[in-house]
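Table S2 (text version). Query chain:
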Amino acid sequence: MRALVVDDERLARKELINLLSNHDNIEVVGEALNVEDAKEKIDQLQPDVIFLDIQMPEKTGFDLLEELDHVPLVVFITAYDEFAIQAFQVNALDYLLKPIEPARLADTLVKLERKVEELRKEQAQEAGGPSKKLTLNDQVFVKDGDRCWFVKLSNVRLFESDGNYIKVYFDNNKPMIHKSLNALDERLDEKSFFRASRKHIINLSWVESIEPWFNGGLVVTLKGGDRIEVSRRQAARFKDLMSL
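Corresponding C-alpha cell output:
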C-alpha cells in the first residue's frame, strides 16, 4: 500500500512515518504540509491512502477532500477528538487520535489492507484498463454545511444542476456541491453516466424504465422513483446506449 502523510506539523509527520516504517505492508511515498502541497502530491504520487490531519492553517483536511476529483482512502489524524463524530459521518476508513498508539495504528492497517485489496479487484474487473475518468468504483467527497460524506459513485443515481451548484442524489440525501454540471460531465465515465439534458446527469445503472415523451424526447424513471426528461437532442444517443 502506498501512503501519503498530510500534516502541518513536521514532528507529527515524522512520528507517524516512523510508526508506519515498522509495517511491511505499507510504504510512505511522500509527505505534505498543507492542502495545496497535498493536492500536488496526490496527483503526482497516486497514493492508495492518505493519513490526513484535520486542523491545518488556512484550509482544513475537509477542504482538501472537497477540492479533489478522485478521493483516495482516508484515515484522519488529529489531536482534537471533537472531530471524531464528523469524521465518522463522512465514513472515513478510520480515525486516529494524537498521540497515535502503535496498537491502534496496527488495527487501522489491517482495515486498510483489506479495503485496498477489495478496490484493486474491482478495478481489475473494469473493462478498458486504467482511466482518468471517474468510474462507478470511484468515491467522491461531498460536503454540505456541517454534513460530509464519502460517496461511491455507483450509489449516486442523479446529478442535478441548480444555479452554480449541483445537487447530488444518493440514498435519501440531496446535498449541494459548488461545481458546474459541464465540469462534472467531463470527469465522469460516459459508459456509466449520461448527460440527459442541460440540467441532469443520470447513472445508467439506475435506469428502471423508459417511455416516449413530447417532441421526440424520453422520460427515464430511476430506481427509487425519480423521473428525468431526456431532451430530444440526447434521445437518439440515449437509445443507442441503452440498445433500444
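Notes on Table S2: Helices lie at 10-20, 35-45, 61-67, 84-89, 102-125, 181-187, 232-241. The domain at 2-125 is CATH 3.40.50.2300 (Rossmann fold).
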